[in-house]
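Technical annex B. To support the medicinal chemistry partners, we prepared a structural model of the target in complex with adenine, based solely on the information shown next.
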Amino acid sequence: MRIAIMGAMLEEVEPFLELSEHEPLLKYFKKHNDIEYGGNVYHEAKYKNHEIILGYSKIGKVNATLTAATMIEKFGAEMLLFTGVAGGVNPKLKIGDLIAATQLCQHDLDITAFGHPHGYVPEGAVYVKPSANLLHLAKEVADEKDIDLIGGIIATGDQFVADKSRKDWIKNTFEADAIEMEGAAVAVVCEAFNIPFFIMRSISDTADEGAVEDFDEFLKHSSQRSSSFIVSMLDKIK
Ligand code: ADE
């Protein structure tokens, strides 16, 4: 199968690329072709029976949309796995914990002036759901590895949230468990093209006043945890 592995920042996909100072997760990725397209670099590689297309979009919904669509339409991805970090909103989520999105929404999409709910535009839906099969697979991996994987709602927006009142608003409006800046955009693209997808995030901060410092400190470690989980999923995908 041709599988896209996508992150938003270089640090989020670095564990796959051996650029990291950590032990590389995928030695196989040493031998990859780098292709520049539309302002991003895509890495084509083989991993076991899979053909992988790996890349990072740069931060935000527009960049994520471009990269997800490119991976599908230009590089022929038949499945997309997203790996990266998020701000924790659910108090159960501590830094380093893993969350798999069960639903994604856009917290900054707002045509409430026309009487619509937050996160909704006509012909769309507030929430988009990832592949049930991939969520099931993730649960199997978590059980085998004795990882406490939380499934929950991820709210996406073009904003790094470092403010308790904004965080609480997003939590209360969308019942969000975590916040990030790309997942729902990827979800909308994959749903439009009928491509099964999965969004994994490891918590880097708790989206309040200490978020910037925590993000800088834990980005690398949390990215490693998320990537490592994705590799274990790859091992199980037929
Ligand atoms: N990604 C990681 N932490 C985040 C935060 N606090 N806000 C938005 N995106 C994030």
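Notes passed to the chemistry partners:
Residues 85-87, 160-162, 179-181, 204-205, 207, 211, 215 surround adenine (CB under 6 Å).
Helices lie at 10-17, 61-73, 132-145, 164-174, 183-192, 211-234.
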